[in-house]
Design a protein that fits this description.
It catalyses: alpha-D-glucose 6-phosphate = beta-D-glucose 6-phosphate. Keywords: Isomerase. By secondary structure, the chain is mainly beta. 4% of the residues lie in helices and 42% in strands. The protein has one domain: Beta-galactosidase, Chain A, domain 5 (Distorted Sandwich). The protein has helices at residues 121-126, 248-254; strands spanning 7-12, 18-23, 29-33, 38-43, 71-72, 94-95, 111-117, 131-139, 145-153, 159-165, 168-170, 177-180, 186-189, 195-198, 210-214, 220-225, 230-237, 241-246, 266-280, 285-296. Bound molecules: 6-O-phosphono-beta-D-glucopyranose.
Length: 298
């Protein structure tokens, strides 16, 4: 721990993968695994867990952990021969000891860790593009969690990708939550072969399976949890789209790494860039930011 009370500790999980615990002076914390570069826990200063992880999650490669914030790259969804949601969430990342500098605001007063993913020879066989994916995970003095991704093309040809922070929020009960910030937007509905619809309601509530990508959203979204009396805020930059997913009853039963009733306690709301893939020329870098905060509500 340094003088400001910010702490960064590295330890091993039960499968031998390194995990990093970030703590701020008030006692809020976040846990990040090198398996998938995945945030697995985000807790308030009262120790309340804010992210959902399934009791049946499998913590072993090649599975991505069912919970936390898996990073979907180089694709979100399933197209072509590349695996669903890409391979970044299944790979072992390394700690980036010497990352190129970020803006001082992205470090000052924060507990943070920098991770790096580069493709292996096998990855290049399935996606033939050399890249460096740098991820900074920040925990602020207020307990906010931010993820800053920098993806650089180190190829000699351009490449395109889509990306999502597949965030599993922990909620009291799916029938008690409401999402604001997506009203009037067009969305692609994965339950109808990605057909395009327009959101009609004032806010999104849940009564059955939802699997959508909202297009071109504003940069702030809120999830109100009435029963638990708390509201999550999602702020994003460079991530125009928002995936919303709840598998509901039937799909829950079909997933080996998810409890039959757990759909009631989770909601995925994902900052993403999906509809218009991002193209990087050789040497170019893209930056995307997600910041999550939570406040008590009445
Ligand atoms: C959502 C997709 O984002 O992720 C769903 O839109 C998918 O179609 C879900 O079922 C979970 O995906 P996975 O690969 O983690 O089981």
């Amino acid at each position: 721990m340094n003088n400001s009370g910010l702490a960064v500790e590295v330890s091993k999980d039960r499968n031998g993968a390194d995990q990093i615990l970030l703590r701020n002076p008030r006692g809020a914390s976040a846990k990040v695994s090198l398996h998938g570069g995945q945030v697995l826990s985000w807790r308030t200063d009262r120790g309340e867990e804010l992210l959902f992880t399934s009791s049946k999650a499998i913590f072993k490669p090649p599975y991505a952990v069912r919970g936390g914030i898996p990073i979907c790259f180089p694709q979100f969804g399933q197209r072509g021969s590349l695996e669903q949601h890409g391979f970044a969430r299944n790979r072992t990342w390394i700690i980036d000891e010497n990352p190129p500098p970020l803006h001082p605001n992205d470090a000052c007063g924060k507990a943070y860790i920098d991770l790096l993913l580069k493709p292996s020879e096998d990855d290049l066989k399935i996606w033939p593009h050399s890249f460096e994916f740098r991820l900074r995970v920040n925990l602020t003095a207020d307990g906010n969690l931010s993820l800053i991704s920098r993806i650089r093309n180190i190829n000699c040809k351009p490449f395109s990708f889509s990306i999502a922070y597949h965030t599993y929020f922990s909620i009291s009960d799916i029938s008690e939550v409401r999402v604001e910030g997506l009203e009037t937007l067009d969305y692609l509905d994965n339950l109808y072969q990605r057909e395009r619809f327009t959101e009609q309601g004032d806010a999104l509530t849940f009564e059955s399976e939802v699997d959508r990508v909202y297009l071109g959203s504003r940069d702030a979204i809120a999830i109100f949890d009435h029963e638990r009396k708390r509201t999550f805020f999602i702020k994003k930059e460079g991530l125009p789209d928002v995936g919303v997913w709840n598998p509901w009853e039937k799909k829950s039963k079909a997933m080996v790494d998810f409890g039959d009733e757990e759909y009631k306690q989770m909601l995925c709301v994902n900052g993403a860039a999906v509809e218009k893939p991002i193209t990087l020329k050789p040497g170019e870098e893209w930056t995307g930011r997600l910041e999550l905060s939570v406040v008590p509500s009445s």
